[in-house]
């Protein structure tokens, strides 16, 4: 599981849960990448991965 910070509000297409800005959520890297790809058609970024180390990633 990976941790992400929500940057803009959105609703998860599978769980129907609504996420709000500054909320920290956990999901698999695969699901996180899928969500980011699906949200690209809208303006701006919606998720930022926060559990990566600054160096080496």
Describe what this molecule looks like in 3D.
This protein is of the alpha+beta class and 57 residues long. 19% of the residues lie in helices and 28% in strands. It contains one helix and five strands. It has one helix at 29-39, and strands at residues 2-6, 10-11, 18-19, 24-27, 47-49. The strands form two sheets. Strands 4-1-5 form a three-stranded antiparallel beta sheet. A two-stranded antiparallel ribbon has the order 2-3. β2 (10-11) and β3 form a beta hairpin. The chain starts with a strand and ends in an 8-residue tail after the last strand. The mean pLDDT is 90.
Cα Rg = 11 Å
- Note poorly predicted spans: none
SS strand fraction: 25-35%
Structural class: alpha+beta
- Provide the spatial order of strands within the biggest beta sheet: 4-1-5
* Sheet of most strands: 3 strands, antiparallel
Shape: globular
- pLDDT averaged residue by residue: 90
């Amino acid at each position: 599981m990976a941790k992400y910070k929500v940057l803009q509000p959105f609703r998860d297409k599978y769980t129907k849960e609504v996420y709000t800005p500054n909320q920290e959520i956990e999901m698999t890297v695969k699901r996180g990448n899928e969500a980011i790809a699906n949200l690209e058609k809208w303006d701006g970024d919606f998720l930022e991965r926060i559990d990566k180390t600054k160096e080496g990633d």
